[in-house]
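[Discussion] Sanity-checking designs against the backbone

I'm trying to build intuition for which residues belong where. Below is a structure token string of 495 positions. I'd appreciate it if someone posts a full sequence so I can compare it with mine line by line.
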């Protein structure tokens, strides 16, 4: 797994690297060299390159790139955007040492010369803003961004596409749509959370000699998941059996809604768990027993004897939010104290009933909440859009309120226990289909029952789900795939 920094953490890393003895201008030169190498590897010497340079160090990086490209005889056009009197010291040094083919200015408005240069460019290098942007883009900057986005040029962003909030991935009114981004040291949170992820293009991480985040004193920065997270999977005991590989109890489905139970149950089994007990209304018995004969069907959810023999429970998918479902959830939460995954309608019940919410907060065993943004909004009593404004902060808040591990599901999913943060950007839009969330909750419940901690189960469950979904999308196409295709492709991840 790789670190993923906020703007504040990235600035601290830069500051500490300088204090440990690396000159600021040297870091700028290395950053520029990384962008230059990308350009020269993609474009011939005759290609027209336009570099948009704001007045901060991000613009200074772009000025250094312009100098390097000019030294290689590329026909370079530099567009200086903003008031040079407000430029940083490093920017001014780069400007003093710049001699290029053409230099244009965009101070109050965008001239026809600038418009024409961008229209004719083979590539545009975006150095307008860096990671420190904290207010909406406006004026000449917004004008430039619109012109670039309307052009056919290949756009390369320096560190982060201008207009993306580095902490949240939100768009600050307007943003460059980059084809690729060259960032330095580590990815930023804004690269991996949507909509920033969609604006960043392919992100290349360039090593320019930063010290490690740990050496810089950065604790608990977000981490982006990769296959290394699966190292927490318990070893299989070659002499084990169905009783030793873990048992999970799933209460899912309602009359006429057996699909949720089937998807949860099979997903749990495919993690390697030994036994799955499926509790669902009698109307679903035949469908469940035909669809997943390996499961032990339990029609009566008040079978507390079974509950006391299992290692984890999952409650919620397809449950509904009626009075009977509310009473049942309250009974189940009070019956046993085992690791519990709460999903879908269980979350909706919690958001509607303060007494159930209090019961969840006081539940003494590990618990995992798996809301999408809409469900999270209901849990925190705010709008979905407000949740999406800062996914990490929303997930942390819910984790602390409920004393739980929270999996905030989205195109990029955030996992947190209120302290540590993991982000998974391994998925595909093909997983945006009915039942995908049921598969995820089943995977997580199976991993807990198989011996994983709640946090590890959530982290690995999200990665397995998203990676399997990506593989299914590659095989079948995102339009064609179904949620059960994710289960089928779990074998590619867990093999």
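Best answer:
Here's mine. Compare freely.
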């Amino acid at each position: 797994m790789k670190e993923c920094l906020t703007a504040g953490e990235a600035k601290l890393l830069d500051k500490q690297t300088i204090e440990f003895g690396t000159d600021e201008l040297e870091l700028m030169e290395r950053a520029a060299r990384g962008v230059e190498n990308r350009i020269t590897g993609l474009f011939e010497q005759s290609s027209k390159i336009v570099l948009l340079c704001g007045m901060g160090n991000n613009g200074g990086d772009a000025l250094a790139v312009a100098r390097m490209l000019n030294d290689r005889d590329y026909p370079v056009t530099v567009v200086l955007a903003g008031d040079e009197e407000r430029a940083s010291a490093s920017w001014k040094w780069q400007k003093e040492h710049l001699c290029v083919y053409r230099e244009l200015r965009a101070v109050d408005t965008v001239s026809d010369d600038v418009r024409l240069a961008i229209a004719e460019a083979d590539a545009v290098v975006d150095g307008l803003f860096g990671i420190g942007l904290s207010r909406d883009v406006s004026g000449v900057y917004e004008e430039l961004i619109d012109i670039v986005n309307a052009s056919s040029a290949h756009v390369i962003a320096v560190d982060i596409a201008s207009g993306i909030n580095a902490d949240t991935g939100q768009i600050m009114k307007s943003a460059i749509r980059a084809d690729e981004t060259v960032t330095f040291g580590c990815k930023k949170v804004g690269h991996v959370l949507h909509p920033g992820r969609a604006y960043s293009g392919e992100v290349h991480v360039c090593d320019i000699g930063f010290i490690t985040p740990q050496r810089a004193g950065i604790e608990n920065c977000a981490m982006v998941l990769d296959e290394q997270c699966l190292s927490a999977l318990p070893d299989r005991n070659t002499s084990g059996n169905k009783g030793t590989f873990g048992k999970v109890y799933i209460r899912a489905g309602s009359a006429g809604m057996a699909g949720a139970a089937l998807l949860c149950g099979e997903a749990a089994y495919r993690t390697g768990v030994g036994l799955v007990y499926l509790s669902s209304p009698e109307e679903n018995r035949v469908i469940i027993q035909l669809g997943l004969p390996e499961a032990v069907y339990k029609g009566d959810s008040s079978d507390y004897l079974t509950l006391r023999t299992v290692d984890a429970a999952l409650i919620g998918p397809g449950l509904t939010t009626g009075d009977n479902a509310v009473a049942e959830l309250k009974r189940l939460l009070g019956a046993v104290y085992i690791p519990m995954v709460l999903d879908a309608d269980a979350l909706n019940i919690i958001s509607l009933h303060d007494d159930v919410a209090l019961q969840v907060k006081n539940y003494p065993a590990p618990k995992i909440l798996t809301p999408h943004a809409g469900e999270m909004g209901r849990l925190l009593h705010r709008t979905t859009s407000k949740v999406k404004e800062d996914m990490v902060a929303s997930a942390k808040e819910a984790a602390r309120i409920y004393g739980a591990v929270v999996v905030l599901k989205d195109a990029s999913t955030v996992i947190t226990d209120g302290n540590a943060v993991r982000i998974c950007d391994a998925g595909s839009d093909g997983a945006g289909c009915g039942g995908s969330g049921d598969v995820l909750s089943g995977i997580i419940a199976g991993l807990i029952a198989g011996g994983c901690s709640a946090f590890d189960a959530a982290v690995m469950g999200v990665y397995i789900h998203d990676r399997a979904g990506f593989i299914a999308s590659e095989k079948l196409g995102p339009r064609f795939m179904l949620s059960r295709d994710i289960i089928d492709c779990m074998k590619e991840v867990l093999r």
